[in-house]
Amino acid sequence: QVQLVESGGGLVPAGESLTLSCKVSGTIFGWTAAWYRQAPGKQRELVAKINTNSQNINYSDSVKGRFTISRDNGKGMVYLQMNDLKPEDTAVYYCNLAFKTETYWGQGTQVTVSS
After folding, report:
1. What's the pLDDT score for residue 105?
2. Which of 8, 37, 57, 106 has its CB 3.0 to 4.6 Å from that of 20, i.e. a possible disulfide?
């Protein structure tokens, strides 16, 4: 079974950087990977998405120029580098894998940005 575990969240001041990691128990080759986030009172939203060979990458407008998604298929890892963090980035961040009709989610990691 495929399992995803996120790590790297925490409490940081505005302007600071943070890197989130997602470890996958099985192979991730052939799967589209993504990071989502959900803030209190809001719907879960897509932050960034990356295909298996890293040639198709998409970001939400709110994080463009600040966040970078990457992956290492051999290590079964997906990363989200977050720079110049803002209080509006505060949310639970979730790692996601998708292939055809199959979708897997991690448990989420909390990111809190103080002003």
Report:
1. 97
2. 8
Q: What length does the chain have?
A: 115
Residues 95 and 6: their CA atoms lie apart, in Å, by 7
Lateral strand order in the sheet of 4-7: 4-7, 18-24, 77-82, 67-72
CA separation for the pair 4, 97 (Å, rounded): 9
Determine the Cα angle at 102 with ends 54 and 57, to 5°: 20
Q: Which residues pair with 58 in a beta bridge?
A: 49
- Position 27 confidence tier, pLDDT thresholds 50, 70, 90: confident
Tell me what pLDDT residue 1 has.
79
**Euclidean distance between CA atoms 100 and 104, whole angstroms:** 12
Distance CA 63, CA 82 (A): 9
Q: What proportion of the chain, given as a percentage, has pLDDT over 90?
A: 97
Using DSSP, state whether 83 is helix, strand or coil.
coil
Model confidence at 89: pLDDT above 90: yes
Per 3-state DSSP, the chain is made up of helix, strand and coil in percentages (nearest 5) of 5, 55, 45
